[in-house]
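QA checklist item 7 of 12: single-chain prediction sanity check.
[x] sequence parsed
[x] length recorded as 170
[x] structure emitted
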Amino acid sequence: TTIVESSALMPAVTTLLMPSYFTNFGVIYVSLVVPAGYTTTSCVHIRNASSKLETLMPKMDDGSRYLQFWLVHAAITLLLASFASLLAWLPLSTHATWLLWAYVQLESSTRKIYGWFESELGKKSLEDNVLVRSTARIIAALPSNVEDSSTNPVHADNVAAAEGDKSKVE
């Protein structure tokens, strides 16, 4: 099935050889049009399936794969939208985005990424989540304009002394 699915991407492959403006159309085709077509085909097969369980199960498995794909699609779209301003400055980032969507199209990669999401969201504590830990590290590394007197008593004393000097001048 991988060869058949990869052949559906062939019309968009030509956009990889073009400037980013045209590659954007290939990204739309790879990330939305092809999966939508496969999802529709999968739903039609499930709807028209016979009542035999052995013929219905592979079609249900294929349908669940595309449900997983759309969840991964939403997460990756959010990630790409978050970094859009940074990606705009990187050369060939549109081409890399095309390759990312082509990679996510593969059944094994879709299931692997979805499995990672499932394991992260299924943890008992929110602090065990990689995203929460990473966000906490990033926030801790950011500079702050607010000085806390309990963490920096020397600075608080300097501020108090400066305010005292201002009152003497007035």
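[x] summary fact logged: Residues 64 and 128 are 27 Å apart (CA to CA).
[ ] second reviewer sign-off
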